[in-house]
Amino acid sequence: MKQLIHTLEGRLEPLPVSVAVELPSGQRVGKSSTQVLLRFRSLAPLAALAAGHIGTLGAAVVEGQVELEGRVRDIMRAASALLQSDPVRGTPSWWSQIMARTRSMALHTLTRDAEQVQFHYDLSDDFYALWLDPRRVYSCAYYREPGMDLAQAQEAKLDHICRKLQLHPGERFLDIGAGWGGLLLWAAEHYGVKAHGITLSRNQHAYVNQLIQQRGLQDRMHIELCDYRELQPDKAFDKIASVGMFEHVGQAHMPEYGDTVCRLLKPGGMALIHGITAGGVNNVAVGAGMGEFIDRYIFPGGELLHVSKVLQALSQSGLEMVDTENLRPHYARTLWAWSDALEAQLPQAERILAAQTDAERGARALRAYRLYLAGCAMGFERGWIALHQMLVTHPDGQIASGPMVGAQSGYPFNREYMYTQGVSCPTSSNPVPPPI
C-alpha cells in the first residue's frame, strides 16, 4: 500500500490542477484543498490512473466505481496531463490492421448500423434539447464571427453549407443523415430547394415529420427512415450534403459510401461531406482507452479515418474534391458550449433520463455524456481529432467556354461565392422551429 500511495503522489503532484484521490478505505492522497477529487470505490481502477489510461478510468466513473467531484474543465485539464503517450501517433501492426478491417465489415451490416444509430440518437429527444441549440443541430457549429453564441453559429454553419453547395430554388437536395432536420429546413426555407432527408433514427424521423406538418412544407420537404445504401430515388439529386454521418460508415465500407454518393449525385452536381476525422494517419480511434469509451457508451460502431483516407475513397468513386476546410477549432468551441449547457442543467437532465429510461441507466448515461462532451472538446483542442468539410463534384465531362473555360461541373474559380452570397446570419428571416 505504501508503494501505491507513493506512485499516486508522484502522478498527482505535477498535474496543472490540484487533484486528490480518496481510497476505498477513506484515506486521501494528494493536497487537502483540491479542484478535483476522485473517490475510488474499489482499487481496480487505480491501475488505469497510474498508467494514464484515461478512457478506462472514465469507464470506471460511468460504472460507479469512481466518483468525480469538480468542474469538468478542470477534470479534462488533469486528464490530458495524465497521458503518458500521444494518443494518435504510432503505426499499427499488419495483424491489428487486418483485425480492424474484419471488425469493421462485421459491425456495419444494415441491421447493426440501424441498431447502433438508434442506441445513440434515440436516447431521449428531451435530453438532447437541453444542451443543443433551438434547432437541435448536432454537429460542429461555424463561428463565423467571434462574438456569436451557439445558436447563431449553428445558423451560420447551415448557411455556410448551403452557400458552398450553391443551392438554387427548385433544385433536388439530399441530406444523408438528416438529424433533427435543421439543414433540411434551412435549405428549403431560405434557398427554395426540394429537400429530401434520410435517417436511421426513429425519434428524429418522427420529429422532422412533425416539423414538416407544422410549417406546411409538405411540398418542399420529405424525410425517409432509410439506410443510405438502400435509397433508390427516381433520379439523381442536384446537390447532396452528408453531415456527421460517415463516422458511422466504417473504414471497410468507405468505398461503398463513396460509390453511393456518386450514384445519387447527378453529373455536374456537388456534394458537401462533413465529418469528424482522425488526428493521426493510421488510427481509427483515439488511444489511452478513449476510443473504447466512445464505442462502448456513446457511438457503438463509430470509426474515424484521416481526411486523406476519406478523400481517397471519394476520389476512387469518381468524385473530384474541389475544396476542403478544417473546422477543428470550431468543434472544440461547439463542444464546450454543449458541455457548459449540460453542466448548468444536471438535475433536469437526470430527471429526464430517469423518466425516459430508468434511474440506473439514466444516471450511467448522464455520467457518460458529461465525460464525452468535455472529453471530445479536449480532443479537438489538442488535435487528436479534427472536423473537415469536403466539397466534391461529380464531373460531367463537359468543358465550359467563356469565363469558365477549362472548368467542369460549373465550380467557381475561387471561394468568394461562399462568403458574399446567401442568407445574412446570425439573424434569420424565419423563426426557430417550435419545440414538439
UniProtKB/TrEMBL annotation:
Xref: InterPro entries: CFA/CMAS, CMAS, SAM-dependent_MTases_sf
Q: What name has this protein been given in UniProt? A: Class I SAM-dependent methyltransferase
One Pfam match, by short name? CMAS
Q: Which CDD domains match?
A: AdoMet_MTases (cd02440)
Its lineage reads: Bacteria, Pseudomonadati, Pseudomonadota, Betaproteobacteria, Burkholderiales
Database matches in PANTHER family: CYCLOPROPANE-FATTY-ACYL-PHOSPHOLIPID SYNTHASE (PTHR43667:SF1)
Keywords, A to Z, come to: Lipid metabolism, Methyltransferase, S-adenosyl-L-methionine, Transferase
What is one process in the GO biological process aspect for this record? methylation
The family line of this record is: Belongs to the CFA/CMAS family.
What GO MF annotations does this protein's record show? methyltransferase activity
